[in-house]
Amino acid sequence: MVPGMSTPDMAASISLPAVDTASNTRAIATPLRDAHSISIDNVSVSYPIARKERRNVLDNISLDIDEGEFVVLLGETGCGKSTLLRMMLGQERPTSGRISVAGSVVERVDARSGYVPQRYSLFPDRTVLENLCMGPETSKYHVWGQIWGPLRPSFRAFRREVREEAYRQLAHMGLQRSDATKYPHQLSGGMQQRVAIAQALMMKNRVLLMDEAFSALDPATRASLQRLLRTVWQESRPTVVFVTHNTAEALYLGTRVIVLARASREDSCGSHVALDMKLPSSGMSLRTHGQQFLELVDHVDSFSRGDRKAILDVGPEEAETISDGETQL
Q: How many structural domains is the chain composed of?
């Protein structure tokens, strides 16, 4: 077994043709398409650590993420994957380079991207329903609109629509209508994270950013939310960027896995894209792929550790694809 694995089994099997694993020892050069959901152009990040000295976190990262992709960012602690995600959101700015979402450069947090953090993002003094409705209502009417809005029939109609959508999202997350009146402290950790996902989906963003959203959950709850997230993604196909330390989780959830790694521990050496690999849209699991899945976990982990010489040992007769035919291993 792979340490830390909590990947749920999948029902569908995948038919797989031949691959060349050696081509993934560097970042994949993907042909430009008509439009990208997220574009990362020569982004570097560094911080001052002493007089005239800086620590490089990311070094000239360039990536294009297409509409509807489910991208998982992997890497060891401190490699900069959460920093990169926060820059996509607009919480942080790159030292150099730029990031664009939906065709516009990201300069601050805005409504283009939904966000689910590692720790629960619910307001403790608001009920579940109030937490879900706050985003859409504030976005449309802002603060003064919410004060004077109740006097207007259009606001009351809008609020009814938002509340019905909130109830639909709760049901979608496997929660009961009665949960809407509860406060966050009355919910389990798994229930709070389901509400946090529903909160992000309420804004109808085409980009969803998730920063180790399941890492604090027990294995059973984590597996349940993994299945739920894949179902949500398959239904509406938003662009998802998901940060995790769990390689098995990455292979189950993602249609594309990107590994960030540092060539050395020196402060002057920032992380680069060590591996950029596409996966089947149906995902991978131990049950459906068996030994190949375990070998692939080891293969991806070797890049996280910075071992560039690692390749997946698959003979010509046994070779299998783990792509949708666009980019092979």
A: 2
